[in-house]
Write a structure and sequence with these properties.
The chain has seven helices and ten strands. By secondary structure, it is α/β, with parallel strands linked by helices. It has a three-stranded antiparallel β-sheet, with no helix packed on it. Strand 1 and strand 2 form a beta hairpin. The longest helix is centred in the middle third of the chain and has 13 residues. The radius of gyration is 35 Å and the shape is elongated. Keywords: Ribonucleoprotein, Ribosomal protein.
Length: 218
Amino acid sequence: MAAVYTPSSAFLSTPPQKVYSFASPKTPFLGFPVAAAKPSIQARALTLSKPTPNQIHCQGGAVVPKEQKWMFDESNINGPDIWNKTWYPKAADHVNTEKTWYVVDATDKILGRLASTIAIHIRGKNLATYTPSVDMGAFVIVVNAEKVAVSGKKRTQKLYRRHSGKPGGMKVETFDQLQQRIPERIIEHAVRGMLPKGREQHNLDLKKHLINLNALES
């Protein structure tokens, strides 16, 4: 085999090789004639190029959902430039436009799991563009709040306390008593406990995001 080198590339050339083949009679083990050939080497061109540094190319920006297009400028409508700079929502984008509405049926749903799911969607933590300082959560409508379920002995042992602000104004009632009187307040109490307690809670009005259909009908 002979090798020919040029300044830009190297070529490998080989003289023509003879191909040898033979056929063997049929054997009881294989069941078909065996043919073998001496392997031949074909000439290939090997291009030598300068090494290039690793580069990451993004073919297109991230697609922005329709309900979140109000958060981006027209230049970034195809998605933020996450490769070159950090994107952060602006204060002027705090508007309640094109938000998602969810209808939740509380029938036979466990109170804790139901409340945690509602709290996640109210805060907007299910979105890829979630930002703690921006109110980008959805609106949730709860139906059949009086049919929510709890586990164990919570119906008789779980207590709800309220105070009128006057001396001796403490009122205590069980889960069953509050469910018969104001069933939607049980879900509101559970969801409120899963929301932030600082300044963010004042910006996030639970009365606007969590709507009980029973309260509207009454």
